[in-house]
Design brief:
With 426 residues, this protein is α/β, with parallel strands linked by helices. The protein contains 17 helices and 14 strands. Helix 3 runs antiparallel to helix 8. The longest helix has 22 residues.
Length: 426
C-alpha cells in the first residue's frame, strides 16, 4: 500500500505493534488449489466427492440438498433463531432495495441525433459460497444471497461444506437460495466456476472463505466474476481523548474472536486512551471464553498507535484502509466526512461492528488487506451489470463521422476509416 509522507510518519508512534509479516509461503496452497480445480473441471461430481472425503472427512451422498431436507432444517431451527434470522433478512433486503433504487437506467441525447444510454441488467446466475467455520454463522448466507435476489438474478445457488450445521441450510433457504449444494472449499469454487453434472456453472462467485477458497477464487477469475479476494477480518477504531477504553477493548476483542489472524487496532490522538486500552484488553481477555482465539489475534496482529495530530490520525487510518472502521471522537460525523479509505464506516460509539455483522442491514462482506483504498464491499450493485448502448440518426452520424474518419486515418486503421465513412456516403 502507499507509504505515508515522512512528515506524517514522524507524527505516528506505536504503543503496540503487530508482529512482522512472516512471509508465509503460499505456493503450496496455490499448487493444491490448481490440482483441485483441474480435477473438478475434468471429472465433475466424482472429484467433488473425492475432495469432500479428503478435506472434509465427509462421504457425500446427494450433493444437492433436497426440498425435504430443506424443510427438515427449517423445522429444526429454534423459533427465536428463526425470528432473528428473518429480522436480519428483512433489514438486509430493505437496505438492498433502497440501494437498487439509486441505480437507474440512463437515456440521453448527447448531440442532436446521437443517443447514448445504459441499462441495469441483473447477472443471470450467481454462486454464493457459504463458509462453515467453527460456529454456524447464520448471517453469512443472508449477506450473499439476499442482495442477489433483490438485484433480480435469475438463479442464486449456494454451496456450503457438507459438515456445516443444519441451521446454515435453513439460513440459505430463508435467504432465498434457489438451489443448495453440500460442497465446500476449493472444490466448491471449482464446481461453481466450471459446472459439474449436478452443480450448474455460474457467472459470478461471491462469499468469503479460508485461504484455499480465496486462492480458488483468484485462479478462476476471468471466465467467471468474483466479488473480491478477502483476507482475515479487520477492525480499527479512530478515537480522540473522548474515547472509552472499556468500550474500545470490547469492540476490538469482539472482532478478534473471528480468527487468530484477525487484525485489530486503535488509532488515537490520546496516549492516555492508548495505554488504558492496552490494560483493558488484557483485563477482558482474562474472562473471555473465546480468549484462545481472540488473545492470539491480539498478541500477533493487535496494534495501537498514537498520533500527534488529527491530520496524522486520518492519514494513518486511510493508509490502513480497514475493513471495519469505527469512529469514537467528540464529533464523529465531522470526523467521518474526512475519512475516505475503509470497507464500512461505523459513526459514533453506538454503531458497533457486531450490528452490521449480524442484522442492521449493511453488508458484512467487505474489502480487507488495504483494498478499501479502491473498492467498497458486497452490495446489491455487485449483482447487476451497467451496460451501455447507443443509436444514431443521420444528424448524429453527421456529427461524429468526420472526427472518427480523421482519427482512423491518422492511426493508419483503414478498415475503421471505411466503416466510419460508409455511413455518410450518399
Amino acid at each position: 500500500m502507499p507509504a505515508l509522507s515522512p512528515a506524517l510518519a514522524d507524527q505516528i508512534h506505536s504503543v503496540k505493534a503487530p508482529r512482522p509479516d512472516d512471509g508465509s509461503d503460499t505456493s503450496q496452497i496455490a499448487a493444491t488449489v490448481k490440482e483441485v480445480l483441474e480435477a473438478v473441471r475434468t471429472r465433475g461430481d466424482e472429484a467433488v466427492r473425492h475432495y469432500s472425503k479428503l478435506f472434509d472427512k465427509s462421504e457425500v451422498g446427494s450433493i444437492e440438498v433436497t426440498a425435504e431436507e430443506r424443510a427438515a432444517a427449517l423445522a429444526g431451527l429454534d423459533p427465536q433463531t428463526r425470528a432473528d434470522t428473518e429480522f436480519a433478512i428483512e433489514r438486509v433486503r430493505a437496505f438492498a432495495q433502497a440501494q437498487l433504487a439509486t441505480i437507474l437506467p440512463l437515456e440521453i441525447e448527447a448531440l442532436p441525433g446521437l443517443h447514448l444510454g445504459h441499462r441495469v441488467i441483473p447477472i443471470q446466475r450467481v454462486g454464493a459460497y457459504v463458509p462453515g467455520g467453527r460456529y454456524p454463522l447464520l448471517s453469512a448466507p443472508i449477506m450473499t444471497i439476499v442482495p442477489a435476489k433483490v438485484a433480480g438474478c435469475d438463479e442464486v445457488i449456494a454451496c456450503l461444506p457438507p459438515t456445516a450445521h443444519p441451521a446454515m441450510i435453513a439460513g440459505c433457504h430463508l435467504s432465498g437460495a434457489d438451489r443448495i449444494f453440500r460442497v465446500g472449499g476449493a472444490q466448491a469454487i471449482a464446481a461453481m466456476a466450471f459446472g459439474t453434472e449436478t452443480i450448474p456453472a455460474v457467472d459470478k462467485v461471491v462469499g468469503p472463505g479460508n485461504a484455499y477458497v480465496n486462492e480458488a477464487k483468484r485462479q478462476v477469475f476471468g471466465p467467471v466474476g468474483i466479488d473480491q479476494l478477502a483476507g482475515p477480518s479487520e477492525i480499527f477504531i479512530v478515537a480522540d481523548e473522548t474515547g472509552d477504553a472499556e468500550m474500545i477493548a470490547t469492540d476490538l476483542l469482539a472482532q478478534a474472536e473471528h480468527d487468530i489472524r484477525t487484525r485489530v487496532g486503535l488509532i488515537t490522538t490520546s496516549r492516555a486512551l492508548a495505554e488504558a486500552t492496552l490494560v483493558e484488553v488484557e483485563k477482558q481477555l482474562a474472562t473471555l471464553s473465546t480468549a484462545p482465539v481472540a488473545g492470539k489475534a491480539w498478541a500477533d496482529f493487535g496494534e495501537i498507535v498514537v498520533c500527534d495530530s488529527e491530520e496524522a490520525m486520518i492519514a494513518y487510518s486511510d493508509h490502513i484502509a480497514a475493513e471495519h472502521l469505527q469512529v469514537h471522537t467528540a464529533d464523529p460525523h465531522a470526523m467521518a466526512a474526512k475519512l475516505r479509505n475503509y470497507g464500512s464506516l461505523f459513526i459514533g460509539t453506538l454503531a458497533s461492528v457486531v450490528y452490521s455483522d449480524k442484522c442492521c442491514g449493511t453488508n458484512h462482506t467487505l474489502p480487507t488487506m488495504g483494498a478499501g483504498r479502491y473498492t467498497g464491499g458486497l452490495w446489491v450493485g455487485s449483482f447487476v451489470k451497467i451496460c451501455t448502448h447507443q443509436w444514431l440518426d443521420a444528424r448524429g452520424v453527421a456529427a461524429v463521422a468526420p472526427p472518427a474518419i480523421r482519427q482512423s486515418a491518422s492511426e493508419g486503421l483503414e478498415g475503421h476509416r471505411r466503416a466510419a465513412a460508409y455511413r455518410v456516403q450518399g
